[in-house]
Design goal:
single chain, alpha/beta, four-stranded mixed sheet, about 45% helix, binds 4'-deoxy-4'-aminopyridoxal-5'-phosphate, AON_synthase_class-II, acyltransferase, EC 2.3.1.37
Amino acid sequence: MKVFTDHCRRSLESIKEQGRYRTFTALQKRVDSFPYYVRPDGSRILVWSSNDYIAMGNHPVAVAAACEAARVMGTGAGGTRNISGTSPVHDELEAELASLHGKEAGLIFTSGYVSNQATLSTILNTLPCGPAHSWQCFSDAKNHASMIAGIKGSRAVVSIFRHNDLDHLESLLRAAPAEAPKLIAFESVYSMDADIAPLAGICDLAEKYGAMTYLDEVHAVGMYGPHGGGVSERDGVAHRIDIIEGTLGKAIGAHGGYVTGDADVIDFIRSTASGFIFTTSIPPMTAAAALASIRHIRQDHARRAKLFERAETLKAMFDAAGLPRIPSVSHIVPLHIGEASLCKAVSQRLFDEFGMYATPINYPTVPRGEERLRFTPGPLHTDEMMTALIDALSKIIPLERRRAA
Ligand code: PMP
C-alpha cells in the first residue's frame, strides 16, 4: 500500500534527522575469544557491552549441554508447550528456576520481554475482587518497556511512582481505594542507571497496603545473592515477593524468559496467558543450556565474585582517570557523556580507532543531557584490557570534560 510505504519513508527520515535511527553492528560472538568478537573482515573487537554478564554463553558446561541436546532432540521445539512442544528438559528447567528463587513453581516464556508483557497483562486483566474493583497498578518510573507493555495492555488503573522513591510510592498506595486489588511492579537492578531498588522497603509497603509484588530480576539473576537468585536472594526478601521474573538470555547465557511464584498463580498464567499458550516453546537445546548454566551458577561462587571485583576495578580506574562515571552500586558501569552526538562519536572512535565496542545510550532510552556509554565488564575482562580502555577513553574524551565532571 503506497500510502503506508510513503508514511514509513517520511517517519524514517524524521528518525534519522533526530539522530535516533538504529543500525546494527554485525559482530560474531565466539566461544574461543570472548570478550573479543570478530568482524566480518576477521579483525577482533573487544566488547564492553555484552549482557552475557558472566560469560556463561561460552561456558563449556552450557555449550556441551546445548550440543548434546541438539544431537538428541534436534534444533527446534516443534510446537507450543500444549501441542507437542514440551520435553522433559522444559519441566526440569521450570523446577530449577522455582527452586532458585525459593518458589513453588516456574514457567518459561520465549523471552524476558514476553514473560513480563504476558504475565502482567494476564494478571491485571482479571478481577479478583469482583467487577466493581479494577486493579491498581503501581509502576516504577524507570520500568522496562516490556513491563509497561503488559501494564498498558490491561484494564488496570496505573500510578507511576518516582524511581525508587518509597515516600512517593506510599503516598500513591495510601490514596488508592482500600478494597481494590493492588500490584507493585519494579525491577531490582536498573540496567541504564546501574542502581538497585530498595526491595525490603517496597515489601514493607506492599505488606502494609495489601499489595502484590512483581519483581523483574533480569539484570540480577545469576549474579546477585549467594546462589545467583538475584537481589531478592541477596537481601533475604525473595519469600516476600509474589512473582519473580527473569531472563535466560543475560547472565544465564541462553535465551528465554520466566516467572516464578505460587503454584496456583503460575498454573493460572500457564492456563490463560496467550503470550504463553500460542507460541512455539524455546528449543530443548536452549532449555538444556539454560538448565546446565543455572546448575553451574548456583554453586560457582568464584564467577560471581570475579564479576564484582572486575566492575569495582573498572570504576576505580575511571575515577583515577577523571572519567565522569555515573554512580553505580551494581556491576554496570555507565560513563556520563551528556550529548547524543558526542556519545555516538565517542563510541564510533572507540570502535574505529581502538577496536572496542561500547553501546551509546541516547534519548529516549535516557533523558536528554544524560546520554552515556554503558560498560559491563565481566570475569574475562583482564587488567590489560581495562588499561587499554582507559587509555583510549582518555585520548577521545577531552581533558576539560573529564575534570569538570
Ligand atoms: N526486563 C528488563 C529490565 C530488560 O532490560 C530486558 C531486556 N533488556 C527484558 C526485561 C527483556 O528480556 P529479554 O531480553 O529476555 O527479552
